[in-house]
Specification:
Shape: elongated
CATH architecture of the largest domain: 2-Layer Sandwich
CATH topology of the largest domain: Beta-Lactamase
Largest sheet: 6 strands, antiparallel
Radius of gyration: 23 Å
Structural class: alpha+beta
Number of strands: 8
CATH class of the largest domain: Alpha Beta
Number of helices: 10
Distance between the termini: 13 Å
Order of helices and strands: HHHHEEHHEEEHHHEEEH
Length: 260
């Protein structure tokens, strides 16, 4: 529900704080800075009410009024944003989320970030029954072969791939590793359609991984989660169920980072 819908649905019973947040949401989402009159009309507020709120918000540095009367977000919210961003840490968010949930205890869960054409492992939670593979913090692998790398590459503009692999495509790690940029592009199309990525033995034969991106407060994919299991466990039913759960977990981490 949009801010103006929230105000209209709740009418006169909406607290002043809720109205102030709706004003900030509307102004920050507007392509051009609205005047007080336009703001009041858009939010369905009496002009006198809007005037009183805007005046108080100007005094607090939440809004600034230009010479032509248009309203823009003021400097004060940046203090809150800066504090939030300074306290937010990908690894910390990962650890807290894993600690709070038991749904992935059976599986190894990793988090990576993209660095050029490679992924770097920054966090790992081992399964209750460890796999015959170790994901070391700081380890690098070619992005095209990993579930997290495929997810992150699928989130990038199509034109980025040519630049990332201008120096050549990485040598395969197994006989199942994607062999060319063209084949990778086809996998990325499937990833976008499916909603999560799949690495079926591409970094290690017998290992099956699913990946999904984690977004920050801007919606930009800043990391990706992968869930690893053995190939024998990866039945179509398990893939579908675990894939949905992984996407939900990645969305939860995104919300913790300020994403939508």
């Amino acid at each position: 529900m949009q801010a103006h819908d929230q105000i209209r649905s709740a009418g006169a019973h909406v607290p002043a704080l809720r109205r102030a947040v709706a004003i900030l949401d509307h102004i920050s989402a507007s392509s051009d800075a609205p005047t007080l009159s336009r703001l009041a009309r858009a939010l369905g507020l009496p002009k006198s009410t809007a005037h009183g709120l805007v005046q108080a918000m100007e005094e607090l540095g939440l809004l600034v009024r230009a010479a032509d009367g248009s309203l823009r977000t003021g400097p004060h919210p940046m203090r809150w944003a800066g504090d939030f961003l300074a306290r937010t840490d990908l690894v910390s968010v990962f650890r807290h989320a894993i600690a709070e949930s038991r749904r992935f205890e059976r599986f190894t869960v990793t988090m990576t970030v993209l660095d050029g054409s490679e992924v770097v492992y920054i966090a790992c939670s081992d399964a209750s029954r460890p796999l015959d593979v170790t994901f070391r913090i700081g380890m690098r692998l070619p992005a095209p072969f990993t579930a997290t790398g495929k997810a992150l590459l699928a989130a990038r503009p199509e034109g980025d791939l040519d630049g990332l692999f201008a120096q050549g495509f990485p040598a395969p790690l197994t006989r199942y590793s994607v062999a060319s940029l063209g084949a990778l592009r086809r996998e990325l199309v499937e990833t976008r359609e499916r909603g999560f990525s799949i690495d079926d033995g591409q970094i290690r034969e017998g290992l099956f991984c699913l990946g999904a991106t984690v977004g920050d407060h801007t919606g930009h994919a800043v990391a990706a989660l992968a869930l690893s299991l053995t190939r024998s466990e990866a039945t179509p039913e398990v893939i579908a169920t675990v894939g949905r759960s992984l996407v939900e977990a990645a969305a939860d981490l995104s919300r913790r980072l300020g994403g939508g």
